[in-house]
Fold each of these.
Amino acid sequence: MTDTDVVVLGAGPTGLTLACALRLHGLTVRVVDRAAGPATTSRANFLHARGSEVLGRIGALGTLPDESLRAMRITNYLGDRPLVTLEFGDPRMRTAAPPMVISQAKVEASLRSRLADLGAEPQWGNGLAALHRNDDTVVAELDDGTSVEARWLVGCDGTASTTRKLAGIGFPGVKLTERWLLADLHLDWDLDRGGTTGWIHPGGLLGAMPMPDSSGAHDLWRVFAYDPGHTEKPAESEILERMRQVIPQRSGRRVHVGDPEWLSVFTVHRRLADRYRQGRILIAGDAAHAHAPFGGQGMLTGIGDAENLAFKLALVTRGLAADPFVDTYEAERRPLATEVLRGTSAVTRVNIAGNPVGRFLRDRVAPKVFGLAPVQRWTTYTASQLWVSYRKGPLGGRGPKPRAGDRIPDVACVRPDGTPSLLHRELSGRWALLAPPDAPAGCADVARRHLGDFVEPLTFDGDEAMLIRPDGHLAWRGDAGDADGVNLWLTRALTTGNAR
């Protein structure tokens, strides 16, 4: 008998989201992290609408909306001239989940609280030392000398992932930039806290983003500055002194730089794992893909990985799906990571453009293009990741929209007891069978036969029936009485990992 169903290495946003989702699906889980305790620094500081949706579905959103800022505007300057202003908030999003300026530390705290409600908590100060693979289990040797045997092991342990290295999974990539300085600073200046401001300067880009401030002073800012031409890692005192130089110099504003909350330095790499699975070992989040921080896509993509993987591991572990069903995780999520990496890399290259052509495109062409309302709507919608679809994957489909694999918005629905609800609220570790009122029960009965008790029958204002996956994507749609259609889709998907 195994010690647990799943060992999760890493208690960051990806690992904690995965652990919460696995518990909702009825699996046992053990979360291990080499760090001495929870992180207190902000690190990532923006959660797009898709990430808020996921946290809402697993019950981990908590008080984050109340603790966050809605700084939904980006303005770039060239000297004292505003080049372009990008406004977030696209009505096509059709979601109640808000994009938020919020510290990663607060996101993790909310996830830990939810995980505790679900009967689990991370073990700190203990990392992965070695792996041993069997046909049906994997054994993790930990730093403290103990071993854990599990059905699955998932590495959510960051870009330097020990899990990925021990599993022999390659992580090729390239370096995109020299060093950036990063700081959370208390600043006394007259800059509007309604959004992020960037200044294009010959010495390098400078950006400032307002941060939630529990002190009540409302003067906390995330500041990042491109600072090439240095090879040695600076001390924190050197980072602070450099920030005191470049902030007034590049912004052209009078500013008093107060005490720092956090100081760091980074370079931008683009990396993508060769594969996401090696037998019973999988990777997710930064262990699988390394992004530029611009656009807030890293934490968002990792959280999406976790939700996608959780329900697939659950079905296979409970014996309701065959092993190939787990492979649909990589088939759906790795192409998305490729696309996101392409976008974040392009933004990075624009931000640091040094040659005449690049500067002309950034300073002259881009402001005109991104000043157009349709382009602004497209940009903000793209950043939200609400557009994500798996229709081209093995569980996707063709035909009229919405197609199998498409995200389904948070539509109004009614529970079996007559209580009004919203779709995403019902997808808490469950599938949903949406059907018109008075539809026959055949489709729901078939879904339960394949998926067990983790199916919620719901009625909604629609003409067809739709089987919705726990991650909010469409599995199957058809006539409300077409029980054979549901049966065929689930039989193919769960046994072969390919529903086409």
Amino acid sequence: MAEIGSPPSYQQPVVRKKNTAVIIVVVVVAALIGGLFILQQSKKNKQPQVPAEKETPSPTEMPKIDKKDVKIEVLNGSGIAGQARIAADALKKAGFNPDNIKTDNAKDSDHKITTVAAKEGFDGVAQEAKDALAAVFDKVQTESSKLDKDNKFDIVVTTGGIPPTPTTGPSASPSAIPTGPTTTPTPSSATTPTPTSSTPAPTH
């Protein structure tokens, strides 16, 4: 016989079931929360990370080269006498130092185009040399290959082709040169009324 005041024995399983249900709910909720947290973390990890912008290094400025200090070798590559001198004169007029320009003959004398080769870092002055030579040669091009750094010259010019013939004085019209007979006044007969012994007119 059950004691008075004690709960019925059938209530204990009900309480256990309730506790079990609460635990299951808590576990499910915790699992859901954990799942959502893991899902959010995975989404964050999957998002493409924008790489940090790398600072582009500013190009180092090459020191400006004074063309008066540039050493130039001019080689006659056409076999035409005096062609290296013509090229050297054009470079001198462009401001290059005459003392730093040397002339010589190239190994071959069948060059058809005047070429300009330069050391690394001398592209600017090589372009100036090319522009100066283009005034006297019909075809001038820059060599893509650079001169060896141990070369004693900074720029090597090899002439080619035939430069235009400069216009000189003998091509002027001979009529421009005054001659003796044309300067002497001829109409002496018109002055016959005037005595020849009178004072002559000034010649200057």
